[in-house]
Amino acid sequence: MAPSTAGAITLTINGEKHTLPVDNRTTLLDALRERLGLTGTKKGCDQGQCGACTVLLDGRRVVSCLQLAVAAEGREVTTIEGVADGERLHPVQQAFLDLDGFQCGYCTPGQICSAIAAIEEHAAGWPSAATTDVRPEAGIPPLTADEIRERMSGNLCRCGAYVSIVQAVARAAEDSARTAGRTDVADVEGAA
Ligand code: FES
Ligand code: FES
């Protein structure tokens, strides 16, 4: 008898548990959009190249079109629908709104999820391909426009809103650093 390709899985999405039967080959993106109605996460290329489908998995960014839903069981999935605090927008969402970090908006949920994780990665001292001094003693690299562009390079914007996107990420990172009492990104205003 051929092995079954279907089963029931339980996903924790934005703090809520959802149990659903799925074909084991279903991607997390299709489970979110087609099975659970969470259409904030967008499908662009469906092959890992555009970043429109970016969500957070245990706080780390992933492209959900390349992630099987079954592999997300037991992990915390955060989508764009879950980043705000009730009526209060996430600081990255607010920065995108304030600084017009979008045009048509199709890439925006992925950009915002990616930016949330990118800011946390930077704050944790993770270097990027644009970091010039990667020695541990060099500390957290300044979050320059080049750093932001590199760290956000997995998220394409067909409208070309990149200048405003970089400014929005810079603003949100600066706010976040201030809140944490850090000064290492205090010079990013106007980074774009
Ligand atoms: S839809 Fe997933 S990377 Fe493009
Ligand atoms: S705002 Fe239109 S694709 Fe980015």
From TrEMBL:
Keyword vocabulary terms for this entry: 2Fe-2S, Iron, Iron-sulfur, Metal-binding, Oxidoreductase
User: Where in this chain does the record put each 2Fe-2S ferredoxin-type domain?
Assistant: 7-83
- Stored SUPFAM superfamilies: 2Fe-2S ferredoxin-like, CO dehydrogenase ISP C-domain like
What's one GO MF term for it? Answer: 2 iron, 2 sulfur cluster binding
Matching PROSITE patterns: 2FE2S_FER_1, 2FE2S_FER_2
- Lineage, top-rank taxon, reads Bacteria
Q: Does the keyword Magnesium apply?
A: no
Q: Which Pfam families match?
A: Fer2, Fer2_2
Asked if the keyword Transmembrane belongs to this entry, the reply reads no
Q: Its annotated pathway?
A: Alkaloid degradation; nicotine degradation
* Protein name listed in UniProt: (2Fe-2S)-binding protein
